[in-house]
Design a protein that fits this description.
By secondary structure, the protein is mostly helical. Helix content is 81%, strand content 2%. The chain folds into two domains: 85 residues; 161 residues, no CATH class. Strands 1-2 form a two-stranded antiparallel ribbon.
């Protein structure tokens, strides 16, 4: 609409300008003739008509401009109102976000605390389960010791039973808890499980003598060899357990005793005792029966505890 009105205004102004220019260019005679013929009057009317049309066009343009300005102001007002609403919503969302972030932070802290609590509970449960397993294993092992180790000389029964207990949950409990009194309990259980130890007098014994008697009780060479192998004789050094001096002596004695008669030393236990002292460390040649049990238990459990610490 405004484009058409503007075009009419420009055309009217052009016509009025042309008519006015023509009248201005007439001479005196031309004007007299135009007045007589009425052309001058018509030109004036035409000029006035186009000027009036132009004024009306300007008015219409002004009205349209005002209307557009009103619409624009209304649109701006609506946009302003919308932006204000958006701002309020944004602030509300940000507040909710901050609140939610705080709740998430509290939830994370709660979860961490709960995880720590469950971890402690799990550790305590593992300790309780391990202790129960150790107690069950100890009870079963000492109950079956007489049947399982029947025919084995009592010093070797002590060493083998101590090794069995150290290799299972009892040794794991001892290594993890470091309870020094636990080995005393094990030694008591081992001593009570073996008749010869339980009934033995409390006077001292010679280590060489009881080990020497042990191999002589076994009349068959393959039995001696089996006992030596149970104590890791002949095993790859990388796979064998590190022996204490008592276990080392017992194993070497059976290994030497399993040799043919013409190759076997006259006193295998004496030779084994000296070799153990040189290879592993000092070993007292005399002890009570209970002291023998304590030493065997301590050696086996110390070996296993060292393995657990290196894992």
């Amino acid at each position: 609409m405004s484009d058409r009105v503007l075009l009419e205004l420009v055309n009217g102004i052009g016509v009025a300008s042309s008519v006015t220019a023509d009248r201005s260019g007439m001479g005196v005679m031309g004007r007299l003739i135009a007045n007589v013929t009425g052309q001058d009057h018509e030109a004036q009317i035409l000029t006035f008509r186009h000027l009036i049309n132009g004024q009306q066009a300007l008015v219409q343009l002004s009205v349209e401009a005002n209307l557009r300005s009103g619409v624009t102001d209304l649109a701006l007002a609506r946009v302003s109102t919308h932006l204000k609403s958006v701002k309020e919503v944004t602030l509300a969302v940000r507040d909710e976000h901050d609140e939610l972030a705080g709740m998430v932070g509290e939830l994370i802290q709660e979860c961490d605390a709960r995880d720590e609590y469950l971890s402690r509970v799990g550790q305590r449960l593992s300790i309780v389960e391990l202790r129960m397993a150790a107690d069950d294993f100890l009870e079963i092992a000492v109950t079956d010791a007489e049947r399982v180790l029947d025919g084995v000389p009592w010093p070797y029964q002590v060493i083998l039973l101590a090794r069995q207990l150290a290799s299972g949950p009892c040794g794991q409990w001892d290594a993890k808890q470091g309870d020094t009194g636990y080995r005393t309990r094990i030694a008591n259980a081992v001593a009570d499980a073996i008749d010869e130890v339980r009934q033995a007098p409390r006077h001292g014994v010679q280590l060489e003598g009881i080990i020497d008697t042990s191999w002589r009780v076994l009349s068959r060479t393959d039995e001696r060899r089996l006992l030596a192998e149970l104590l890791d004789v002949g095993l790859n050094p990388q796979l064998a357990l590190a022996h204490g001096p008592l276990t080392q002596m017992a194993a070497l004695t059976m290994e030497l005793a399993s040799l043919p008669d013409d190759s076997r030393p006259d006193r295998p236990a004496k030779v084994a005792l000296e070799l153990s002292r040189r290879r592993v460390g000092h070993l007292d040649g005399g002890a009570t029966t209970r002291r023998f049990v304590d030493l065997a238990v301590r050696e086996q459990f110390a070996t296993v505890a060292d393995l657990w610490r290196r894992r």
